[in-house]
UniProtKB/TrEMBL annotation:
The keyword RNA-binding does not apply. Keywords: Membrane, Transmembrane, Transmembrane helix. It comes from the Bacteria. This is Quinol oxidase. InterPro entries: DoxD (IPR007301), ThioSO4-Q_OxRdtase_DoxA/D (IPR017192). The chain crosses the membrane at residues 29-49, 97-119, 126-146, 152-175, 211-230. Residues 37-186 form the TQO small subunit DoxD domain. The keyword Nucleotide-binding does not apply. It holds the Pfam family DoxD.
Length: 337
């Protein structure tokens, strides 16, 4: 009993001494680095996983002839993409060489940046790339998520994680340190310190504080702002967003009644979940007063010839089915009835 009491007293005294002891800056920096190790490795694995699925484990995503070709995924993101990206995606979908090059380059960048983050190689430039990926993915896919805003959540977290790694470096168990040990003269290189994570950023404490707070403002405004835009619940009531991720919606434009009695209209499935197709089982042509002029039931829609659909894209398309006309989110076509 005496020994236990004595040990407890010694432990208390040690803790009191530790509280009053200042920690050397080098030790503090090491503690920050090892504390961020899990963040760096998982951030890297997320992007390594995205690239490796396409290049190694599920190469059909890079095969234009396969049903899982990435173009289908991009097309489903098109209706809710922000800052004009809808038009850029549409242009790429109609120009195969540009689309394919973009998919390959983006996937390769994900793969390399993710691998480098896990290894701690060119840590800061890799973290900066991961921040760019997060912003792009947020603007393209952030609106999606039928049961929860999972695309927003991933992009928001990855942006914050990438920013933290960029600022702090996460230099422990990193290849950047191996490079620095072999070439110690790089200690004074601003390029090395901005690109790698072995040493603090080569700026004054005042400049570092301004940079950190500036990035904090950007991350918070971007993440919270997109959340409010997509779902509200910040200063406005909850809503499903300007583009619903759950309820399908079809926009009809350029309707024409031809001289031979046929009707043409451009249809665009611009909302809803991409996990299930939309089925059009009935269609009406009405006057401005609501009087029905023409009517097509499910059987009539199912019997439309395939050349009745002039699809805008080669991927998700409007087509006939057993239940009338079907389409996946992002499909757009001129339909002849």
């Amino acid at each position: 009993m005496f020994n236990q009491t004595e040990n407890a007293a010694d432990s208390t005294n040690d803790q009191e001494e530790l509280v009053g002891t200042s920690i050397a800056p080098s030790t503090q920096y090491w503690m920050v680095g090892i504390g961020l190790l899990a963040v760096r490795i998982i951030q890297g694995f997320i992007y390594w996983g995205g690239g490796s699925r396409r290049f190694i484990y599920a190469p059909d995503k890079l095969n234009p002839d396969a049903p899982h070709w990435m173009a289908y995924k991009f097309q489903t993101a098109m209706p809710g993409a922000l800052l004009g990206l809808e038009h850029i995606i549409s242009f790429m979908l109609q120009h195969f060489w540009l689309l394919y090059a973009g998919v390959i380059l983006f996937s390769a960048a994900e793969l390399i940046a993710g691998l480098f983050l896990m290894l701690g190689l060119f840590t800061r430039i890799s973290a900066l790339l991961s921040m760019l990926f997060s912003v792009l993915l947020m603007l393209m896919f952030g609106w999606q998520g039928a049961t929860c805003i999972d695309e927003w959540t991933m992009a928001a977290c990855n942006l914050a994680m990438g920013t933290t790694i960029f600022l702090c470096g996460s230099h422990v168990y990193a290849f950047d340190n191996i490079i620095l040990k072999k070439k110690p003269h790089l200690t004074g290189s601003r390029v090395f310190n901005w690109c790698c994570g072995s040493l603090p950023l080569p700026v004054s404490p005042v400049a570092y504080k301004k940079l950190a707070l500036g990035l904090l403002v950007f991350v918070v405004v971007f993440d919270v702002g997109t959340y409010s835009y997509y779902r509200g619940s910040v200063v406005t009531p909850y809503h499903h967003g300007p583009v619903s991720p759950t309820t399908h919606h079809i926009s009809l434009t350029n309707g024409k009644l031809l001289s031979d009695g046929r009707v043409t209209v451009h249809a665009y499935l611009d909302a809803g979940t991409p996990e299930a197709p939309e089925h059009i089982m009935e269609a009406w042509l009405k006057t401005s007063s609501g009087e029905t002029i023409m009517y097509w039931d499910t059987a009539m829609l199912s019997s439309l010839p395939q050349d009745s659909f002039r699809n805008d894209y080669d991927y998700n398309q409007f087509s006939v089915s057993h239940y009338g006309i079907q389409a996946v989110v992002g499909s757009a076509a001129t339909i002849v009835f």
